[in-house]
Write a structure and sequence with these properties.
heterodimer; A: 273 residues; alpha/beta; Rossmann fold; five-stranded parallel β-sheet; 12 helices; 38% helix; globular; B: 397 residues; alpha+beta; 2 domains; eight-stranded mixed β-sheet; four-stranded antiparallel β-sheet; 14 helices; 30% helix; 23% strand; binds iron/sulfur cluster
């Protein structure tokens, strides 16, 4: 019996391709860091395209495509369409691919001004006005959150895909993971500005485990009540509208509803001055 | 055996402070995994220990809605604090537990039970409200065979862990700002269901035996007759504790009031504040919901089923083909509060709340169920028949 139920293009082992767009490679590294599971994975799929790991490239089509990074250049805009055509299942992985990532902070600024400041010969730089998630350009079959993605979730996603079952990727708060693991709450015991109550689980409450506040790198959870948490940070912890805005505008600042909420606190901040 | 020990049950005596070391050592020697209150990262957690030095001695806690701080206390006092986020629930009903594996063997599945054998637990320093919570979970998990109301089938792990456990309960002499056990009639003094109960004085403990196991254990320790002054002091401290409850809840007619308040406007107000983060359900010692998830091993094809603590505050909890049945935070908070204080009675013939105050302290925005329930009960006439207003986009204003 085959180890997978995925209908393949070739009838042989399903093929896996990993693509990089504007990103830091951290999510691909999570795949390489898997070690034990990676060997199993290599047994279960044909790694057809993964430039970070091997030079050999097999031609498309691919059964599963993982995409890391945001779309921030005209060339990437074209390339993602081809990648979509080449892949049966397309999964965007990580904050950049699912929200635009940290580079999407430029969406609130003047990109040309950045380019003039940073590069000695700005005329060579071909950059889009905005950095945007993959799903803003092509249809994606699944989005895996995190900066970087969590290795266990990556394995779960691939195992589910290969078997043809629904992946177990919860959309509830980080708090649930935090409490299951028995970490004392940093918001309640220390007055830290923890975003865990509005952030999607998946990391295993990594930051509270190190006695630090969650800064939301897995993006908004299902139906987050951002205003209530913000009121708590402002009224009980004495934080400003600007601090709330900056807390929301980080790795997933361009993902709804963090985006609208960040803009809202920016308007409140501007009204004050 | 019971002929000679029976008169000794519920007998009070005096145990000097330094006997705490011997007590812990004794339990360890008898093969118990001893669980007691310890300081971890700024909170009192119920964790395994092997010596009395690890107990949270000389530490007080300050608790209020969404706020918890530890302060220095009387260095002679072992238990001058109350419950933290943990409770024995973590040990009887673990937050994450592998249940079984399935392996394909030819044309069939082979099922292997992977539930571990629970250790023999001895809890030191649990409180009266926690014993009450355990009695409620006994009904939920179906180990209380005499009662008629339980609906779930008996949970084997819970039953084994629970039946082998030893309870050394501490009567509360310094309740926290979020405690209301007096209103729920669960504390501050434990009346039954313990092996030993301790009331702490500065020089030692007034110890009461509750079972033969407790009598045998106390027999190994340097206890002596308690003087009448010591007994009087202990009961004074407990009387004073009753008057120092941080919160109160009038439960008379509360179930009936809640049952007919489904459209009360207060639900909208609390829904504006509730994060649906589920902290309240995770820390509640009676909340029992779980979910299972299956993972498959790519190499062997083996499937593992794992059980996790789940909460009625998640979408997945009530998810059907058309989406979550309780799609609003209003609906989820209402469901939770009504379950704790009203529908639990229909289901298990008991309250689902023991007044421990955890859900108040550990709610990141300090939502207080005593306040919510009181508001709903007191504004009965204004209850209007409003339909759920669903999602309102307020950011664009
Ligand atoms: S530390 Fe943060 S993530 Fe953990 S329970 Fe508290 S608010 Fe939630
Ligand atoms: S706790 Fe928050 S910021 Fe930290 S890793 Fe998890 S999601 Fe990211
Ligand atoms: S509902 Fe709150 S006060 Fe009542 S038992 Fe649960 S955590 Fe304690
Ligand atoms: S009542 Fe508090 S702890 Fe419970 S879900 Fe709402 S915000 Fe979270």
């Amino acid at each position: 019996m085959p180890a997978h139920n995925l209908p393949t293009n070739s009838g042989a082992k399903p093929t896996l391709a990993v693509f990089k767009f504007s990103s830091c490679d951290g999510c691909q590294l999570q795949l390489l860091n898997l070690e034990d599971e990676l060997l199993t994975l290599v047994g279960a799929v044909e790694i057809a395209y993964f430039l970070e790991a091997r030079r050999r490239v097999l031609p498309p089509p691919y059964d599963i495509g993982l995409v890391e990074g945001s779309i921030s250049t005209p060339e990437e805009e074209r390339r993602i369409r081809q990648v979509r055509r080449d892949c049966r299942y397309l999964v965007s992985i990580g904050a950049c691919a699912t929200s635009g990532g940290i580079q999407a902070l430029r969406n609130w600024a003047d990109v040309d001004e950045f380019i003039r400041c940073v590069y000695p010969s700005p005329e060579y730089i071909k950059s889009l006005e905005t950095a945007t998630p993959i799903a803003a350009h092509v249809f994606v079959d699944f989005e895996l959150r995190g900066c970087p993605v969590n290795a266990e979730q990556l394995v779960e996603l691939l195992s589910a895909l290969l078997l043809g079952r629904k992946p177990n990727i919860p959309t509830h708060s980080v708090c649930i993971e935090c409490k299951r693991r028995g970490y004392p709450c940093v918001l309640v015991t220390k007055g830290e500005p923890c975003l865990g109550p509005i952030t999607q689980a998946g990391c295993g409450a990594l930051c509270p485990r190190c006695e630090r506040a969650c800064y939301g790198c897995f993006g908004p959870m299902e139906q987050p009540n951002i205003r209530s948490l913000a009121n708590q940070l402002k009224n009980e912890q004495g934080r400003t509208n600007r601090e709330v805005k900056l807390a929301l505008r980080q790795f997933n600042g361009y993902m709804e509803p963090f985006k609208q909420a960040g803009d809202y606190y920016e308007r409140l901040e501007q009204k004050e001055t | 055996m019971s002929d000679t020990t029976a008169p000794l049950i519920h007998k009070q005596s005096f145990l000097p402070k330094d006997a705490m070391n011997a007590l812990v050592r004794r339990l360890v020697d008898e093969g118990y995994t001893v669980i007691g209150p310890q300081v971890h990262d700024g909170a009192i957690m119920m964790r395994p220990l092997t010596t009395a030095d690890e107990l949270a001695k000389g530490v007080c806690d300050e608790q209020d809605g969404g706020r918890y701080r530890l302060t220095d206390g009387d260095s002679e006092m072992y238990f001058d604090n109350v419950v933290g986020p943990d409770s024995p629930k973590r040990y009887f009903f673990p937050p994450q537990q592998k249940l079984f594996t399935l392996t394909i063997k030819g044309e069939r599945f082979q099922v292997d039970d992977t539930t571990p054998k629970p250790p023999k637990y001895a809890f030191i320093g649990i409180r009266a409200c926690e014993l009450a919570a355990i009695k409620i979970q006994d009904r939920v998990f179906g180990i209380d065979v005499d009662q008629q109301t339980f609906r779930c089938e008996s949970d084997q792990y819970y039953r084994r862990a629970r039946q082998n456990a030893l309870f050394i309960v501490v009567n509360c002499t310094r309740p926290a700002g979020t405690c209301f056990c007096v209103s729920m009639e669960t504390g501050p003094e434990a009346i039954d269901s313990f092996d030993l109960s301790l009331t702490e004085l500065r020089e030692g403990f007034i110890v009461r035996t509750g079972t033969e196991k407790g009598v045998a254990l106390l027999g190994q320790l340097p206890a002596r007759e308690a003087t009448s002054a010591e007994l009087e002091l202990a009961s004074m401290k407990l009387r004073r504790a009753r008057d120092q409850m941080g919160r109160r809840l009038d439960t008379r007619g509360l179930k009936e009031a809640l049952d007919k308040s489904m459209e009360h406007p207060r639900w909208d107000e609390v829904a504006d504040r509730c994060l649906s983060c589920a902290n309240c359900t995770m820390v509640c010692p009676t909340c029992f919901c779980s979910t299972v998830s299956d993972t498959n091993d790519l190499a062997t094809g083996q499937v593992t089923r794992t059980r996790f603590w789940e909460s009625c505050f998640t979408h997945q909890f009530s998810y059907t083909t058309t989406g979550p049945v309780r799609s609003t935070i209003r609906g989820r908070y209402r469901h939770w509060l009504c379950h704790k204080l009203a529908t639990w009675w229909d289901q298990f013939d008991t309250s689902g709340c023991v007044g421990c105050g955890r859900c108040i302290t550990w709610c990141p925005v300090g939502i207080d169920l005593t306040e919510e329930a009181t508001a709903i009960r007191e504004q009965q006439t204004e209850a209007s028949d409003r339909s759920g207003r669903g999602f309102v986009d307020e950011w664009a204003e």
